[in-house]
């Protein structure tokens, strides 16, 4: 988990923090360039590049460059560990190949390890930043929660500084109601539960939507790189941020309410990344060389809706707050809850499920949610929660130094 708090550095501190961010970016990019050049047959490098060799070289570089030496060695080393983690994530298939950090990126920052915090009063606390000292931040979480953290990241965005403190996941508090719930996530209804409740994620208000589209049209007319263009971009970003905050709020409130009501939640194990990928072309077997429609346009619309309805964030947070069983999603929308027959024709429309075998009628999403719960209970008979998702353990590290965790 990460706790994001607004920082209030003094002007003097701010200048030094900007310097830290620039140094972190410089060292990160330099390390990335070195790693990108290295291949097994380039023997002149003699030895494999690792975070250790890079840290040694950083020490040498600091001897040569006065301006780099003026910064913090700790912060610069952490940037190299950050890079190392980025490569580990890439080789494990968790993320893309690390990219260079651009000076024009509106977001910049640096990581802080060996977190030290100090409380001023119930509203304010301070964080120790290398070479700068104590920097004030506004406390909106419990101080005890922030204290659990081991590392943090200071981020500069839109002229504001925030600190994200990464903390271990909080202990789950069981609702102890003995009730279980099946959850179907979708486009028409963001969340449908097996007891027939529908919950909609917030979106833009009609006014905001008009404004958003108008700004997009304005943007298209403006010259790239001009001041007006930049101003329109900032306005669009601000609207997106509003929506994002609203959604995050909704995810927090909805998942907390579910965790307080039910002991176990069953959700579909949807690989959202797979679902948002462009559909494969379907070759026409009758006329070789040509292709049948693959519903790419329809799916593209759906993709946007999927991403917009924030399922990933929802299921992640839910699993952090309560026991969650992920089930195989196949046929959950085609199976009849009453007679258990699977038939694609039973799905009368987007909203209506009408079984063609037994005549059972229900809202399609409710029926699906019930099937999801059924499947969770039959795959874990008797012991609900037996195969639940455990909080992710930090991988045991062979390094004497702990690896940097990227704070989201
Ligand atoms: Zn039926």
Automatic annotation (TrEMBL):
Q: Which InterPro entries match?
A: Cas12f1-like_TNB, Transposase, Transposase_put_HTH
| UniProt source species | Arthrobacter flavus
Q: Domain (Probable transposase IS891/IS1136/IS1341): give its ranges.
A: 171-277
Q: Which Pfam families does this chain map to?
A: Cas12f1-like_TNB (PF07282), HTH_OrfB_IS605 (PF12323), OrfB_IS605 (PF01385)
Taxonomically, which superkingdom? Bacteria
Q: Give the residues annotated as coiled coil.
A: none
Q: What is this protein called?
A: RNA-guided endonuclease InsQ/TnpB family protein
Q: Does the keyword S-adenosyl-L-methionine apply?
A: no
Transposase putative helix-turn-helix domain: from which residue to which, for each copy?
3-39
Q: Which UniProt keywords apply?
A: DNA recombination, DNA-binding, Endonuclease, Hydrolase, Metal-binding, Nuclease, Transposition, Zinc
Similarity section: In the C-terminal section; belongs to the transposase 35 family.
Q: Where is there biased composition of kind Polar residues?
A: 395-408
* UniProt GO MF annotations: endonuclease activity
The Cas12f1-like TNB domain is annotated at 311-372
Stretch list, region Disordered: 376-408
């Amino acid at each position: 988990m990460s706790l994001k708090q607004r920082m209030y550095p003094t002007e003097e501190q701010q200048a030094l923090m900007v310097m830290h961010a620039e140094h972190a970016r410089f060292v990160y990019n330099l390390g990335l360039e070195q790693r990108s050049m290295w291949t097994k047959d380039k023997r002149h490098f003699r030895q494999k590049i690792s975070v250790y060799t890079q840290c040694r070289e950083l020490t040498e570089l600091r001897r040569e460059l006065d301006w780099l030496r003026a910064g913090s060695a700790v912060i610069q080393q952490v940037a190299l560990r950050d890079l190392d983690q980025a490569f580990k994530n890439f080789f494990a298939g968790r993320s893309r190949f690390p990219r260079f950090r651009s000076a024009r990126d509106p977001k910049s920052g640096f990581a802080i390890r060996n977190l030290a915090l100090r409380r001023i009063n119930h509203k304010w606390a301070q964080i120790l930043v290398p070479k700068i000292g104590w920097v004030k931040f506004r406390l909106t979480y419990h101080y005890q929660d922030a204290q659990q953290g081991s590392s943090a990241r200071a981020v500069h965005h839109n002229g504001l500084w925030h600190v994200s403190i990464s903390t271990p996941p909080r202990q789950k508090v069981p609702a102890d109601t003995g009730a279980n719930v099946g959850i179907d996530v979708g486009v028409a209804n963001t969340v449908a539960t097996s007891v027939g409740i529908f919950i909609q994620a917030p979106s833009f208000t009609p006014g905001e939507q008009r404004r958003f589209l108008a700004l997009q049209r304005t943007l298209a007319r403006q010259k790239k790189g001009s001041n007006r263009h930049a101003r329109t971009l900032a306005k669009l970003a601000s609207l997106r941020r509003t929506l994002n905050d609203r959604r995050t709020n909704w995810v927090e409130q909805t998942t907390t309410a579910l965790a307080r009501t039910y002991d176990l939640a069953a959700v579909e194990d949807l690989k959202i990344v797979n679902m948002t990928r462009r559909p494969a072309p379907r070759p026409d077997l009758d006329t070789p060389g040509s292709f049948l429609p693959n519903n790419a346009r329809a799916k593209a619309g759906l993709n946007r809706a999927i991403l917009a309805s924030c399922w990933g964030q929802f299921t992640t947070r839910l699993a952090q707050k309560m026991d969650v069983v992920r089930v195989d999603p196949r046929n959950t929308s085609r199976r009849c809850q009453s007679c258990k027959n699977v038939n694609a024709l039973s799905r009368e429309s987007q909203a209506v499920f009408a079984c063609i075998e037994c005549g059972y009628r229900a809202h399609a999403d409710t029926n699906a949610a019930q099937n999801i719960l059924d499947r969770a209970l039959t795959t874990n008979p008797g012991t609900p929660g037996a195969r639940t998702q455990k909080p992710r353990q930090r991988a045991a590290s062979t390094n004497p130094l702990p690896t940097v965790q990227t704070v989201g």
